[in-house]
Amino acid sequence: MIDDNKYIIRKATLDDVEFIATVIIEAEKSMTNNFGLANFFELSEEDIRKYIIQILEEEVDGCEFSLSSFFVAEYDGEPVSALGGWLEGYYDDMPSALLKANLVGYVFPKGNVLKTREKADIVKALQIEREMGTYQLEYSYTRDDHRGHRLIQRLMMAHLAYAKELDPNVKKAQLHVFENNPTIIKVHERSGYHIAKRYVSDNPLALEYYPYNVELLMEKEL
Amino acid sequence: MERTEIIEKLTAVFHEVFNDNNIVLSDEMTAKDVENWDSLTHMLMITKVEETFGIKFKLKELNKLKMVGDLINTIETKLQ
Fold first, then answer.
1. How many other C-beta atoms lie within 10 A of the C-beta of residue A153?
2. Which of B31, B44, B51 is opposite residue A98, by nearest beta carbon?
3. Per residue in B16-71, pLDDT tens?
4. Residue ranges per domain, chain A?
5. 3-state SS assignment for residue A172
6. B32 to chain A: closest CA residue
7. Entry pTM
8. Can you spell out the DSSP letters for A99-136?
9. Taking CB atoms and an 8 Å limit, are B59 and A101 in contact across chains?
């Protein structure tokens, strides 16, 4: 029997790297069996996991592949849920997209990076530019045996309190969700988020790299 | 390699990666100034720069590149 009072919400540490890699992979799949990142780089899930762990261990701050971006829910000493988030442009005004690109380009095999060239047009429609000065939330996952305990909401509260610590004037939190996941959309709506923009890809090949062809930008005033 | 030669080779990389032969590099240029400069093309551009100049950036160097001028300076330093 799970005791809700035993959950501890804290920042991720190097000891959580394996779990955070799982969080990123499962969130990328977004409740499907389609692991777009592996298809995109023509690598196995096992390889992607290995490279994501290397990336997280680099400890670069300010993007979705930063270990420091994650809050974790711990139960009996084990991480069971996590959510990533960061203040866009907080570190030297560097867009998180470029920090992420630097990390991936640095760690992933060059040959596989260069192979993505021909896919650029396919994924372009679903690449959402992040707004400077907003708090970005990305990648959430809860282990099956700990679902239904509102852990993502608790992690989100921890993130938004942290956002105000970093910048008391931060005005907005944003997140991206695929439209094929109505449950999580409803969870976010209940937390005060609304759909700000809908991004649609008409290219059928996009489904090889994304879980769905419609991605929503949701946001909330802080 | 002279700075002018670096800029010439870098311009060719930009034209190819960003698919725009009208790009004219300047020291102050940033990702905001170039259409299609996103995470994917940035990653490709850096990889092509390393290939073109036969260099390998450190992650710390990459994360300090805010403007094209920073990129040119870093390439210049690494080639010395």
1. 14
2. B31
3. 999 999 999 999 999 999 998 999 999 999 999 999 999 999 999 999 999 999 99
4. 4-171
5. strand
6. A95
7. 0.94
8. HHHHHHHHHS-HHHHHHGGGGHHHHHTT-PPPPTTSEE
9. no
